[in-house]
Structure formats: C-alpha cells, structure tokens
Design a protein that fits this description.
With 293 residues, the chain is an alpha+beta fold. It contains 8 helices and 10 strands. The strands form 3 sheets. It has a 5-stranded mixed beta sheet with strand order 2-8-7-4-5, with no helix packed on it. The chain has a 3-stranded antiparallel beta sheet with strand order 1-3-6, with no helix packed on it. Strands 9-10 form a two-stranded antiparallel ribbon. The chain is rod-shaped.
C-alpha cells in the first residue's frame, strides 16, 4: 500500500468513529427532549398547548442540524490528510513533518517516490492502526455518547409509560395541532324541552380530558362559563332552575362540542271549567249545564 492509501485507511476509521459519535450524541439529545416534552405535556396539558409537540420536534431538528454542522466541521478538521498524518507522526515518534512531506512529494520525481515508498514500508510494519491513541480517544468519547444515548432512550421509554397521552401528542404533532387525536366532546342526554323552573342535569362525554369548560347562555343574558372536572371520561353538572331558553357549548381549550339548544315551556294549567250533560234520546231530557259543586 502507498502512503496515501495507508493514511486514507486511517482517515476512514477515524471518520467512521466520529460519525458514530455524532449519531450517538444526536440520539441522546433527541430522546431526552422528546421524553421531557412527553412528561411536561401529560395529564392532557397538551390540549391547551397544541403547538408544544411541534416545538419539541423543531428543537430536535435544530439539534440534528447543529450536530450535522459540527460533524462536517470536525471531519474537515480532524480527519484531513494533514491532521491524520500529524497524529501518526506524533504517536509513532516520526520526525515532525516527514509523513506529511511524503504525502506531498509522492508523485514528484524519482526521489519523491523513493521517499514515499520507504515511508510506506515503515508504516506497513506498524500494524492495522497507525494512530492508536487517537482511535482510543475517539472510542472513549463515542462510548460515553453511546451510554448517554442508551440512558436517554431508557428515559424516553419511562416517559412513554408515565405519560402515555403526552407521548401520543409528541408522536403525532400534526394531529395534536389540528385536534384529531381526541374523540369529540358530546353533550348527551339533554331534553329538547324542559318545564320552566325545573333543574337540568347535564353529562358531557370528554374522554382523556381532565377538565372542560361549559358555556351557557340564557335568552336575554350574557354568556356564562363553568369549569368542570372530568372523571371517568365524563363531566356532570346541574343547571337551574331554568327560566329561559338555554344555549350550551362545551370546550376543552382545543375542541368545541356541537351547540345544544334547550327550550323552556310553561307548566300546563286548568282554567274555568264548565260541565254540560247531554242525555240519551230515550230519556227525553234536554241537555243542561251542571254546577261544579
């Protein structure tokens, strides 16, 4: 092998270690961010912060972009021919600049080729690794990065278990933004009409929520909002006594239910009563009005 090929082999090994190290750092940072956001958005907190999952992925992309930029810069700086040759000279106790000179003059005349061949023979006796200390240092840093990546993945797995709803929002950021992740809010069991003065019991289906807001407006009155806790996937409340038509809407900060209208009717009553008796014809008795008493 020529000097260029030997140095190129060392460059490839060091470059592969550097790329693997950068990938481990990226994985560790990305998993850590996603896990932290999953925990932060649990208990349906993401519903009122629909942009948070997109923010999480934006930060992950920023980390990946920075890692890519750093990796390209490190590859140019640490795995260039001159940088690797200098490391080999330093670790193998070669005269400073001798290997770099052999790389430069290897194709310039007979003397240059002879110097390059002699250097190649000398390097060929040094084994598979020409810069073992540099490799070991890269391996140590890469091992630390890999360990952190494993810890970050374990943290992400724990976050998925602790905060399944937060992880689902982070895993589907677009659906979280558009409100497609959760079932709709439904105000159920509401009669179309109630008697004036009666109370109205409501049940709002709100799966996976913790709280919701019920908005109500009686005819001629302003809107009123009532915050309700959700237990077992539903919230219940009692309104009234009702004395005017009601408009009802529920929302969780992200989604809104269909509008429900409840009409109010007055109680039936009996006014003046007159009783008139009409007799069968065979009695030959005329019809008459009978006193109520």
């Amino acid at each position: 092998m020529t000097v260029s090929q030997l140095v190129g082999r060392e460059r490839r090994h060091l470059g592969a270690l550097l790329v693997a190290r950068a990938a481990a750092w990226s994985l560790a940072a990305g998993a850590l961010l996603l896990g932290l956001f999953s925990v932060a958005l649990r208990d349906a907190r993401w519903i009122t912060r629909p942009a948070a999952p997109l923010t999480a992925w934006s930060l992950v992309l920023v980390v990946l972009a920075l890692t890519l930029w750093w990796t390209r810069r490190a590859l140019r700086r640490e795995t260039s021919s001159h940088a690797v040759a200098a490391a080999i000279e330093r670790e193998r106790a070669l005269r400073d600049g001798s290997l770099r000179a052999a790389l430069e003059v290897g194709g310039d005349g007979a003397f240059g080729r002879r110097a390059s061949d002699q250097m190649a023979k000398r390097l060929g006796t040094l084994g598979a690794s020409l810069a073992p200390a540099t490799r070991r240092r890269s391996l140590r840093v890469g091992a630390v990065a890999a360990g952190l990546a494993i810890l970050a993945m374990a943290q992400l797995g724990a976050a998925r278990t602790m905060a399944p709803d937060g992880w689902r929002a982070v895993r589907h950021p677009v659906k979280a933004w558009t409100g497609e992740l959760l079932p709709p809010l439904v105000i159920e069991g509401v009669p179309a009409m109630v008697l004036r003065g009666e109370k109205l019991k409501l049940r709002v289906l709100a799966p996976e929520r913790k709280r919701l807001t019920l908005h109500q407006r009686a005819t001629g009155a302003p809107w009123d909002a009532q915050e309700l806790p959700v237990e077992g996937g539903a919230a219940t409340t009692v309104l009234g006594p009702v004395d005017a038509d009601l408009i009802l809407v529920a929302d969780d900060g992200r989604l809104t239910s269909d509008t429900v209208v409840v009409r109010v009717t007055d109680r039936p009553f009996v006014g003046d009563v007159a009783i008139r008796a009409t007799y069968p014809s065979y009695l030959e008795r005329p019809a008459e009005t009978i006193a109520l008493g």
